[in-house]
Amino acid sequence: MRVGVIGDTHFPFVHPMYLAFVQDTFEQWDVKKVVHIGDVVDAHAISFHEHDPDGRSAEDEAALAAVAVDAWYKAFPQALTCIGNHDQRHYRLAKRHGLPGRFLRGYADVWRTPGWKWDFSHHLDGVLYEHGTGTSGKDAAINRAVQKRSRLVIGHVHSYAGVKFHANEFDRIFGLNVGCGIDCRAYAFDYGAAFPIRPVLGCGIVLDGEYAYFEPMDCGTKGKYHRSRAKKK
Fold first, then answer.
1. 2-229 maps to which CATH number?
2. Which residues fall within 8 angstroms of residue 167, CB to CB, at 6 or more apart?
3. Of 142, 147, 183, 214, whose Cβ has the fewest other Cβ atoms within 10 Å?
């Protein structure tokens, strides 16, 4: 099976050319199954951390995120979707204020994605797909793979991407970090403006559960997917 893995999108703060890049890449690889690795939406306005007081309201941000989700849902109407830490923010906020779960809708209902199967982890061809919450650093994917002794794919760590393998006398596994598709110019990511390491944009490909690849997005000034090539609305 050829699986295409979408990186963190953090709607509505996604790079304006990320969808075009993912569609082109999945077509080139003849992808048959799609996984979104999580942090589908950002939920910056209800963050537990510092957030921009001059940014959009929670409702305005959610409305824009819904428009973005709809565009991606039309492109990929069937997908396995990992629940990321940002996706959970409204549930965590409700829990903090004592709202019982019976009053909350599921992710597919909230974002109107009935064809997307939302869960914290998914298994395909012996590969474990998770968002990667709780991991960090350049070796986050392979470290998590070794801990779980499974071929594994994550996102979450925006600043690193790629695949590493690990073998012992019993088996060979890999850890793939698929990068992300965020717009680092968006105010939601102002916290990283002075960081020396920047987000790595791209997506992942997994073949028959045995081989994993990271496809970087050519979004430089002269790149095919530079923001200047996005259609103006």
1. 3.60.21.10
2. 173
3. 147
